[in-house]
Amino acid sequence: MLRFEQPRPEDALACEWAYFLDAAAQTQPPAGNNWVAATSVVARLFSAAQCERIVALGEALGLARGHMTRPGHSPRRCQFAWMRRDPATAWIYDRIAEAVREVNRNYGFELVGMMDPLQFTRYDGATHDEIGWHLDCGEGPNTTRKLSLSVQLSDPEAYDGGDLEFLAMPASSFTRHRGAAILFPALLAHRVTPVARGTRHALVAFWNGPPFR
Fold it and tell me: Which DSSP state fits 133?
């Protein structure tokens, strides 16, 4: 029968670490990385003209209703289409890949690439489109998602609502800057608030790597 002593408050950290320490591992806790709980912003990843080109390419794809990988777990109302890499979109992929390589110097994730194509999304005010609180690191193959990206494609004056928010984190004005890319660990809870007027377009991507361990 296992028996655990109740640690004294002053010994809590040392005792907790001792309980779970692998005998073959180091005797000190691993160093932390504050970036794992933070978002990153590339303020001008795309120009306004480039955003218009991306929107035109996305709208020509034929959009379908969005859904969550866990039906009923969190609301998702939007239209989306997979924007695959081809001669017309290669420049988008290349620009985003450059930003991911740069930002991941801080996160230090082991990434192998994208399992899914870029995701073009449209949120309409007429139907109050939104995505409720969720994690991008979900079930099955999605457990290997490590780094997420959202690119703001619309002029912020073209819609009301539709804010990208992160749980227990201060709001950032950059999430509404046209052409800005917000990158964040796929384990951070986030949502898009309901669009009250107009239309919001965004480009979403996920980078995958070996399972967390």
Answer: E
